[in-house]
Amino acid sequence: MKKALSFTMCILASTYASTALAEERNGWYIGALYNSQTISIYQSREFKSAGAIAGYKINDIFSIETRLHKGTSGYSFNLLEPGFEDKKYKQDLDYQGHILAKASYSITEAFNVYALAGYTKTKTEITTLEFHTDLSGNTSVTYPHQYSENTDGFSYGVGLNYQIYNQFSVFVDYQVLPDFDKYQKSGSWDSLNLGVNYSF
């Protein structure tokens, strides 16, 4: 009887330890974010977007994270071409994706700071005029002319995270995105993000 009881207790203890270890190793988390982006160029451009986060916490310091978001508002201005003054040049954020490595440092039990570095790809949608000159030299103008542009490259940033409960946290971070480099013009591109994460 004692042997059976001891054996049962060992099995229960092993099961509990295995479960606890599995839970400890489950570093997956998901979240949502809202951000504001600025391109510093001859005409500064601002975008707003919202999106989702999925990540895996490898240990107390390092994580791998992906972010994918879609534009909610973009940049526009009135065209100056005669006959089209009521039309607008528009540039909207179609989507933006990030694959990031994240290194965190705890300040207190609730607060930690972190650094981000990785790859970012952005697709923007452009609406503008199109000029066409035929063989006779006659030029026609049409609106709207729509096309897309892609920008990708290295991005990095820093942030602050606050643990609200065991599984919920809020964060704010600042990212430097790949330079906007179009039409022989180059401008810095940065982003301010506010979001929430849920850990499993």
From TrEMBL:
Q: Which InterPro entries match?
A: Beta-barrel_OMP, OM_autotransptr_brl_dom, OMP/PagP_B-barrel
Q: Which GO terms describe its cellular component?
A: outer membrane
Signal peptide positions (record): 1-22
Domain (Outer membrane protein beta-barrel): give its ranges: 11-200
- SUPFAM superfamilies for the chain: OMPA-like
**Pfam families recorded for this chain?**
OMP_b-brl
Q: Which UniProt keywords apply?
A: Signal
For this protein, the record's NCBIfam families field holds: autotrans_barl (TIGR01414)
What protein name applies here? Putative outer membrane protein
